[in-house]
């Protein structure tokens, strides 16, 4: 049975999609399940919100940087399926229908994502996708022109999930319309072996939620970072082109993070090769938050074609942590992260101490400041000054290779 399941699942996800981590915008963290369009028309889950965010992605420099998905989360549908058993959008909040929204998004060079739940109900209490609806819902999404599906796991058993998640992968593939498949499966099974088999998962889903939902707080970001890097030996090998760990949305531009913490989330998500799905109000985003999210070098590192997830390589007693992500062309990204809460900290080390090859010479670029340091030898000691709950991030290229 296992061999058969494996054979089936390896057929399931040869969809050639998400070769680099998906980038875009998602409604959930910032706008949740706000359906009160009478009292709060500007911020409720309605086609208007998605039309406006699509305009922002297309017009404010996001799309050119790779932020291309505009993703609807929970609470978009009517409370019942129609007479034919089909999912339908709420007629008051999505009067034009999802197909029209997809057309609008596509006309702006963007892609549309939607949300479903493998279970009786979605987490917000809307109609779920029971096993008998898997094929029908996949066909519905494809007919609407949807480009990505996040399939949640509320109100279903472990058995139903083990059956339904691979089944949806096959159903999406069978539509012939390319749909990136984001699974919440591992998050509902605790995220770790033996309950979660990442080898099988990578053959079924393009990305998957491993852990808790992100909330608008630094505590939440830290709890996610802790879980991902504590379990990096299991998680890191599971990621690669076409299949990514998803630590959840970027909350930069909202209310819970300071400037330093916002820079830290961006850097740590980039080192994790995480999808960059913003959940913030792009109509009112501050220039400083926008600058972090639109950092070109950061995005280039996140989207590195090798698709290797980074690791935490050092945890100091001084509450400084160092993360390393290998990149193509023998380059790498280093993040120096401070968990201190007192004052800027001067951290001194060398590339040799960080296990870089002996006798190599690197050109180093500070990802946030842009400043270039030339000819740093592996043996040279250097210092970085890291602000409390902040990061210093470096992009390193071997200079011997540059000279060739």
Relevant terms:
16 strands, lipid metabolism, single chain, glycoprotein, TIM Barrel, alpha/beta, alpha-galactosidase activity, 404 residues, six-stranded antiparallel β-sheet, Glyco_hydro_b, Immunoglobulin-like, 15 helices, Alpha-galactosidase
Question: In short, what is this structure?
Answer:
This protein is an alpha/beta fold.
| CATH class placement of the largest domain | Alpha Beta
User: Please, what is the average pLDDT?
Assistant: 96
Ends: how far apart? 53 Å
Structural class call reads alpha/beta
Shape: globular
Largest sheet: 8 strands, parallel
* CATH arch. level architecture of the largest domain: Alpha-Beta Barrel
Tally of discrete structural domains: 2
CATH superfamily of the largest domain: Aldolase class I
Low-confidence stretches: 4-12
Radius of gyration: 22 Å
Biggest sheet, spatial arrangement of strands: 7-6-5-4-3-2-1-8
CATH topology of the largest domain: TIM Barrel
Total of helices: 15
SSE arrangement:
Elements (H helix, E strand, L loop, with lengths): L1 H11 L10 E4 L1 H4 L15 H13 L2 H4 L3 E3 L26 H10 L3 E7 L16 H11 L3 E5 L5 H17 L5 E4 L1 H4 L9 H5 L4 E3 L8 H13 L1 H4 L8 E3 L12 H13 L4 E3 L8 H7 L2 H7 L8 E5 L4 E7 L5 E7 L6 E6 L10 E6 L5 E6 L3 E6 L4 E8 H5 L1
Describe the structure.
This protein is α/β, with parallel strands linked by helices and 404 residues long. The chain has two domains: 23-303, TIM Barrel, CATH 3.20.20.70; 311-398, Immunoglobulin-like (Sandwich), CATH 2.60.40. Helix content is 32%, strand content 21%. An eight-stranded parallel sheet has the order 7-6-5-4-3-2-1-8. α12 runs parallel beside α14 (296-302). Homodimer.
